[in-house]
Amino acid sequence: MRTSQTFSISFFIRKKKKQPALALLYARITVNGKSLEISLKRTIPVDKWNQSASKLTGNTSESRQINKKIDETKAQLYKTYDSLLKEGLLVTTQTVKARYLGSDQQHYTLTYLINYHKEKMDKVLKYGTMKNYTTTENYLKDYLKAQHHTSDVYLKQIDYQFTLGFESYLRVLPGLQNNGVMKHMERFKKLMRLAEHLDWIEKNPTKRFKLRFDQVDMVYLNKTELEKIKNEEFEKPVLTINRDIFVFACYTGLAYADAKALNKNNLQIGVDGNKWIYTRRSKTNTAVRVPLLAEAERILKRYKTHPKIDGTEKLLPVYSNQKTNQYLKEIAKEVKIKKQLSFHTARHTFATTITLANGVPIETVSKLLGHTKLSTTQIYARVIDSKISNDIDNLREKLNDEKTEMVTDRTFYL
């Protein structure tokens, strides 16, 4: 049936009643002898129209623009016709026109995409990650209202200019530094990539946007600072509790969520007959096995009967992340350490001061931290001056030994 189908395109003009010197430009599509008109929404001078060539005469800027529009329309209509045939759909003048104008397709909006993402990812992504997405989505809605004076926008209307505009909008918000802006842009890019994968958009306008994160100095405690915190006597019991849990993390490398989730089932006897922590990283679900060092074990024993965990399976009375970080700032102030402490500082301290600085191989540290790539752990190795110093001392010693052997060998032959 399709082989006998005919399809043709022609262009014509229709004079304006009140302005006979001007005319509106139309395309006529014909399928199997039946025709339908499509307005190109262009007004042209009647005396310059060449009907036999379906072109505007002359070489003026206006003529070139109109003729270009005619060529583009013709090419797009043929493409539309071919796509309908390829998809096995009924081809009529109405279906060709509807596909060309886009009225046969469902047009998804940014709000629809946001709600779809929430629905599908709510059980997949962690609570904290979803909370971050909600913040980004709220910023997108605020941006639409402030800069575009609307509450929603079709995805096909989002272009590269919209993307750059959103970045500019974020940069003037109070409290947002460059890396914070980049995190929101990263989530926006992921949302638009989802729309692309769902075939809701033909081109992803955020694909060309490059994320530009500033390198941030890693905050960790050196041996002296860690001892200072460990030995400090605090008047407030709440500071002592949070200090102890922080120190526990310094000797286990556990992130906040993993330390908070620890229970008695996570304590196992390892291959060496000693106590180990067997758990999974909340962030990546990667298996983690950490031998329990003496300092960490002492802290667990100290809180065995604490009222907050007594009678439960929990191992430590961990406060909320916000409160914990608030208390850690207070602790840093009391012990006069001029570093911005957070719970994650403990993980950095474990990787640097506790393990790498004491000669633990980087491959082992990577396993203890639950990293899936060694390159992630190598970031810690770069910040250990003492490790570099020890490695160079070992190199010097080795080179001196080789030099001594060469002198000895030369003496023997003499």
UniProtKB/TrEMBL annotation:
Coiled coil: none
Domain Tyr recombinase, residue spans: 216-393
Molecular function per GO: DNA binding
Protein keywords: DNA recombination, DNA-binding
CDD domains referenced in this protein's UniProt entry, alphabetically: INTN1_C_like (cd01185)
Biological-process GO terms, alphabetical: DNA integration; DNA recombination
Highest taxon in the source lineage: Bacteria
SUPFAM superfamilies documented for this protein: DNA breaking-rejoining enzymes
Entry-linked PROSITE patterns: TYR_RECOMBINASE
Keyword presence, Metal-binding: no
Cross-referenced InterPro entries: Arm-DNA-bind_5, DNA_brk_join_enz, Integrase-like_cat_sf, Integrase_catalytic, Integrase_recombinase_N, SAM-like_dom, Tyrosine_recombinase_XerCD
Family: Belongs to the 'phage' integrase family.
Protein name: Transposase
Naturally occurring in which organism (per UniProt): Zunongwangia atlantica 22II14-10F7
